[in-house]
Amino acid sequence: MIQRIQSVFLLLLALSMLSVLVVPIWSKVDPASQGTALLTAFSLSFASAAPGGSTLGATSTWPIAALAVASAAVALFAIFQFRHRFNQLKLGMINFLLIVGTIGANFIYSNMGEGLLNIKLIGTYQAGFYLPTLALILNLLASRFIRRDERLVRSMDRLR
Questions:
Q1: Which InterPro entries match (predicted)?
Q2: What is the pLDDT of residues 120-143, one digit of tens each?
C-alpha cells in the first residue's frame, strides 16, 4: 500500500494541504500607515501599528480551511483504496476539484485583503498560496500512476 509510488504522492498531497492550515497565505504591509494585513487559512486580519491606531477585527476565512482539510481527508482515504483503482481515480477527480476550490478561495480572500490597505501597494503571496499548486501536481502524478497500475493489471489478465 505505502510502497506504491502513488501512495507516496497522495501522502505528500495530504501533508501539503494540511500545511496550508499553519502557514500564512498572503500578507501586505503599508509602510506609511504602519498597517498590516495577513491572510491565513482561518482569518484575514488587519492591524494598524501607528500611534493611536487601532487593531481591527479579523474576517473568518473558514472555506479555505474546510477545503484544505477535505482535500487531505480524501487523499488519505484514497491511499487505503489501493485494491479499487477505479475508486482511487474517482477520488482523485474529487480531490482535483477540492484543490482548485482551495486555490480559488485563496485568490478571492487575497483580493479582499488588497482593499484593506493602500491599493497602490501590492501584497505578497506566502508559502500557503503555493502549497495547493504543489498538491495539484502531486494529485495529477498519483492519478497517472494509478492509471498505469490499472493498465498493467488489465494486461496481466489478458495473459491468463
A1: DUF4293
A2: 788 899 999 999 999 999 999 999
For residues 86 and 81, give the distance between their C-alpha atoms in angstroms, rounded to a whole number.
9
Q: Which pLDDT value is given to residue 32?
A: 80
Distance between CA atoms of 149 and 160, rounded to whole angstroms? 17
Strands (E), the chain: 26-30, 35-39, 43-48, 55-60, 124-125
Residue 40 is given by DSSP the state -
Nine-digit cell at 83?
485494491
Inter-axis angle of helices 62-79 and 127-159, nearest 10: 20
- Domains of the chain in start order, with CATH, are 5-151 (1.20.140)
